[in-house]
Amino acid sequence: MDMPLPTRSRLEPAEMVQEGRVHRAAYVDPAIFEMEMDRIFGRAWLYLCHESQVATPGRFFATQMGREPVIVARARDGVIRAMFNRCTHRGAKLTMDETGQAKRFVCCYHGWAFDLDGKLAEVPLPEGYGDSAYPPEDGSLDLVRVPRVENYRGFIFASLAAEGPTLAEFLGPVASSFDDMVDRAPGGLLEVAGGVSRHAYDGNWKLVIENHNDTLHPRFVHASSVAAARDQKDTVHSDGAGEVQIKQMRQNGAPAAVWESLGIWASASGHSFMGDYHTDAHMAARPAEDPVQMAYGRALEETHGVERTEEILSIQRFNTVVYPNLSFMSRFRQLRVVQPISVNRTVVTTYTFRMPLAPPEMFRDSIAFANVVNGVGSLVLTDDLETYARVQDGLASQGGDWVDVKRGMGGDANEANGTLRGQTGTSEIHLRAQFAAWRRWMTA
Amino acid sequence: MSAVLEAPAPALDPALASLVIQESALLDAWKLEEWLAMYAPVCAYWVPTEWDQASPHDTVSHIYDDRRLLETRVRRFRHAMFHAQKPPSRTVRLVTNLRAGPVPNSTLCSYEVAEFRNNRHRRYVGRATHEFEADGAGGWLISRKRFDMIDCDAVLDGISIIL
């Protein structure tokens, strides 16, 4: 007897995003995932690294753009390029190191050697390859370059598509969050430092991107760490690390009115940022009158002058999401890159930034902050990761086909900076913006 | 031949050895408040992200708790909405090759935590260093526990238990 099999994707991508709702196939269908890798990650501007990670000639950084392994390297001419991490001979990956210093990239298999700009420089025993000259002079066996690389204030992005909007057009109003991060650093100097936090979860890549500007979840997801931190006696010894983390957990327990009054802004490209909910000035652990905070203020004034410093410090942003897969905290100098592995597996890599001209205590605070926000053993993050896995499990069920993203719908307001602002701080405006962008990428 | 193997091995203090065993047994038994009582008023519980990581303050860690945060960590286990512990984990710890540690009043051991939760079996394997200080009453308190996992720099899933 022929029974109709349940179809996994009954809808085309264009039909999966409807007013106030999204079809679950966007999260659970492996075919949709492959399409996302082609149409979104294969074309959008993706963050590669910060220029401090490839500061001098020979420095390289290996990463992924969707499914594609790439090497970002600064060549002897000072130019930063992105190339596929794949030997043009028989296809082996050229480097397994995530970062390092190289004179050339030499393939482990048959010794083909590529210059830092990707040019095939040397082929051992070239006579065996026949009559034509090896390496060929026409560059046909040079490493394949990622077609477009651009740098916005030290943040390096690339696109696998040869044509499309410029990085500035793509970023639009969220470029201001990168400005915020750089302007807050005395001398405009930032460098990636302090190691790397990595975590994985059993869920779709979109879940973490959706959660970072979700201001309604902390009171439920983080209830246990909020309560445990609130009940903690501050007379117990801390070397500073616990103090930063406990303050952050308590902030997550801010009253509903605080979250509702926060701003949340989204742009047509699917990017978004939220206002900051920290009541302390400028760093979770340090009030404005703290000597370190005051020294920081003086260092900023040396760069910008008093008036401009005041203006810079008045900007209150927490998370900024650059669709599809970058999320960063301009005020707390944490940057997270979301790497999709499969439809239900995702890796998040977090980088912490040091301000070389700021008081060193601030970097120590940043390390403690990184541990509570992005550490796999964090009292906070563990409940987020558990939640992503539960959402993924639930969406695999046929007990309902739609995800509801209506919160705050109809109240979105146009802002002068080209964004839409949510009716309240807990609006799901960022989800609607992300899926509007998703629909455009997936159908165009 | 490495210097470590050539140096005469200091003797393992049996009192410290039994405390390492007790510490791991209390965690397996989920007697977390009793476990916390084994730690000194100024203490650290540390799981680095880098092999041979020098400092918890200039490099990120999977876990770095001072006494204040460690108390908070333990308290959270008693909260009804600790989602990452629903269902709770079952654990068994293996302490082996226990010997005197790198500094006075310390131990070093090979350490494995086996965890079963939500139909998944995970293993955390590495070397654990325990440092002790006198408690003033003839006994010892743990002043520092450091667990260096062999996969400390790997991509890891959330760790909701105390290792």
Give me the secondary-structure topology.
The complex is a heterodimer of chains A (444) and B (163).
Chain A (H helix, E strand, L loop, with lengths): L12 H4 E2 L2 E3 L1 H4 L1 H10 L6 E5 L8 E7 L2 E7 L5 E5 L14 E3 L2 E3 L6 E3 L4 E3 L25 E5 L2 E5 L7 H5 L3 H9 L7 E11 L3 H7 L6 H4 L1 H8 L10 H11 L4 H6 L2 E3 L5 E4 L15 H14 L1 H9 L2 E6 L3 E4 L4 E9 L2 E10 L5 H15 L6 H15 L6 E3 L8 E2 L5 E2 L7 H15 L1
Antiparallel strand pairs in A: 1-2, 2-20, 3-12, 4-5, 4-7, 5-6, 8-9, 9-10, 11-12, 13-19, 14-15, 14-22, 15-16, 16-17, 17-18, 18-19, 21-22
Helix pairs in contact in A: 8-9, 9-13, 11-12
Chain B lengths: L2 H4 L7 H15 L3 H5 L2 E10 L12 E6 H10 L13 E11 L5 E12 L2 E15 L5 E10 L6 E2 L6
Parallel strand pairs in B: 1-6
Antiparallel strand pairs in B: 1-2, 3-4, 4-5, 5-6
Overall description:
The complex is a heterodimer of chains A (about 450) and B (about 160). Chain A has helices at about 15, 25-30, 30-40, 165-170, 175-185, 205-210, 220, 225-230, 240-250, 255-260, 290-305, 305-315, 360-375, 380-395, 430-444, and strands at about 15-20, 20-25, 45-50, 60-65, 70-75, 80-85, 100, 105, 115, 120, 150, 155-160, 190-200, 265, 270-275, 315-320, 325-330, 335-340, 345-355, 400-405, 415, 420. Chain A has a nine-stranded antiparallel beta sheet, with helices on both faces. Chain A folds into two domains: about 45-150, Rieske [2Fe-2S] iron-sulphur domain (Rieske Iron-sulfur Protein, 3-layer Sandwich); about 170-444, Naphthalene 1,2-dioxygenase Alpha Subunit, Chain A, domain 1, CATH 3.90.380.10. In chain A, strand 16 (about 315-320) and strand 17 form a beta hairpin. The model of chain A has no long low-confidence stretch (mean pLDDT about 95). Chain A is α+β, with helices and mostly antiparallel strands and about 450 residues long. Chain B is of the alpha+beta class. Chain B has a six-stranded mixed beta sheet with strand order 2-1-6-5-4-3. In chain B, a hairpin with a 5-residue loop joins strand 5 (about 120-135) and strand 6. Chain B is globular, with a radius of gyration of 16 Å. The mean pLDDT of chain B is about 95. Classes of the chains: A alpha+beta (about 450), B alpha+beta (about 160). Strand 13 (about 190-200) of chain A pairs parallel with strand 7 of chain B.
